[in-house]
Design a protein that fits this description.
246 residues; alpha/beta; eight-stranded mixed sheet; seven-stranded mixed sheet; 7 helices
Length: 246
Amino acid sequence: MKIRILGYYGGYPYDGVGTSGYLVQSGNFNLLLDCGSGVLLELEKYLDPLRLDAVLLSHYHHDHKADVGVLEYYWQLHSENRKENTLPIYGNIDDKINFDGLTWNDDTKGIPYHENDTLNLGPFLIEFMKTQHPVSAYAVKIIEKSTNKIFVFTADTKYFDGLINFCKNADLLITDTNFYKNKQGTKWHMTSEESGYLAKQSNAKNVIISHLPQYGSLNQLLYETRAEAGSNINVNIAKLGLQFNI
C-alpha cells in the first residue's frame, strides 16, 4: 500500500500547499482520501484524475472537500477514457445536504458508509469510527487485504481515549495535529502532545502528523510530538508529495 500526501494544512491553503488530501494505492487501485482545497491540482502531478477508482471523504468541512465540486466538473467534461464510468464518492449521511451533493448527473455518485460496517472496496477493507468534532467526522482504517497492512487516518477530532483501540498497531498513522502542546481553551483538533500520546498508546509503527497549523515552527510541533511518542516510534511531519510505502 502506498500513501501520498497531496495537502496537509488545516483550514485553508498556505504558501503553495493545500488542505487535506491523500492518494492511497494498492496495485492498480487508486483511492482519494479527502479532497481539500488544492488537492486536485496536486493529484494531477502524479495521476490522471480519470484513473481514480473511488473517493472517500472523512467529513464535509471545506478543507476536506473543497475540490470535490471541481473534480465532479472534471469528470463531466471528460466522458472518454474514464477508468470508472461513474466515480463513486463515499461519504457519511449524517449531513444529507452535503451527501446529496456527491452525486453529479451520471458522472459521480454518492455512496454512504456507516460506522459499524466494513466497506469492501477493491483491495481494501475499510472501517470507520465517529470522532469528536463540531460536525460528523469519521476516522478511517484501511486494511490491505493481501498483506493485512493497516493505515489509519484520524480525520479531524479532539483527543479521546476511544482512538487508541481504533489506531492499534497501525503500520502508518496520520494524525490531526493542528495545535502546539500549549494550546489553551476549546480544542476540536489534537495537540502535538496528544498525537504523540496516541501514537505511543496505540503502538503505531509509523506516524505522520498532518492537518498542520500555518503559524509557529513546524519543527517545534514535530519535536513536541516525538518527545511524547518516545524513541521507539518513527514520527515525521507531512510534506507535499511525500509517498509512504507500507
